[in-house]
Amino acid sequence: MKEAIGKRLKWLRPLLVVLLVMVNIGCDQATKTIARARLADKGTVSVVDSFFVLRYVENPGAFLSLGVGLPRPLRSLAFIAFPLVALALMTAYILRAKNREWMTLVAFAFIVGGGLGNLIDRLFRDGRVSDFMNFGIGQLRTGILNFADLSIVLGCLLLLVSPGVFRKKAAT
Q: Interior CA angle at 68 toward 51 and 160, to 5°?
């Protein structure tokens, strides 16, 4: 009985990871498409008073436009090549992980899905990422971000609270 359950779980884990990655990419690309169609040239649109506002921007840099002044070849290396390699390694790691906690797998799936969502923008939108959400109270605000950014942040937070991330293996 345990072996049958083990065989099912063997396929369930990678399937869950792939499904979550695809859902994250789909939500990210759908929201960016809507934002490009409905928010470009609209200025700032208040959704929940001033706490949550929408404002469309195209960001050629990283978070908070870091690296925007780098020469284009260096930006491509830093924002396309390096993330592509990192996401490929992370994907291989999570698909091969045998005894990872579910929360850890979900966390990595959110990080990979968000990373791929932004990478798709960079590859097909001349190195720019579509950003459109901003949260805050008064002068304390986030940068302008997108669904992929939220996925990455959520994945990182889940990793921090995941029981299997920082636990040392017991000596056998």
A: 55
